[in-house]
Design goal:
Structural class: mainly beta
Strand content: over 45%
Radius of gyration: 14 Å
Helix content: under 10%
Number of strands: 11
């Protein structure tokens, strides 16, 4: 079994920063792409940022220049550094990873989510 666990969410004032982390554990053969999504109340889940196994990154337009996704392959961890947060960033943030538990057997795994609330 594979488990993803997020941490780092919380309440922050507008203009503040948070660093989200997501650790994968379990029977892992290899990890491919990693990403962060978010879901605000009453809205659909949306892609925030992704990073490929080679380190190529991509961001939704509204977070470009403010958020940075990175990964530590040795630690099976993906990070999302958020800065200049505004109330529109308030959401539950979910991490996802493409993980193979044996050669050729790849599927997407999701974390349970971490709440980010931006409010004064």
């Amino acid at each position: 079994q594979v488990q993803l666990v997020e941490s780092g969410g919380g309440l922050v004032q507008p203009g503040g920063s948070l660093r989200l982390s997501c650790l994968a554990s379990g029977s892992i053969f290899s990890i491919y792409g990693m990403g962060w999504y978010r879901e605000a109340p009453g809205k659909q889940r949306e892609l925030v940022a992704v990073i490929s196994s080679g380190g190529t990154t991509n961001y939704r337009d509204s977070v470009k220049g403010r958020f940075t996704i990175s990964r530590d392959n040795a630690k099976n961890t993906v990070y999302l550094q958020t800065t200049s947060l505004n109330p529109e960033d308030t959401a539950v943030y979910y991490c996802t990873m493409g993980i193979a538990t044996r050669p050729g057997q790849i599927r997407d795994y999701w974390g349970q989510g971490t709440q980010v609330t931006v409010s004064s």
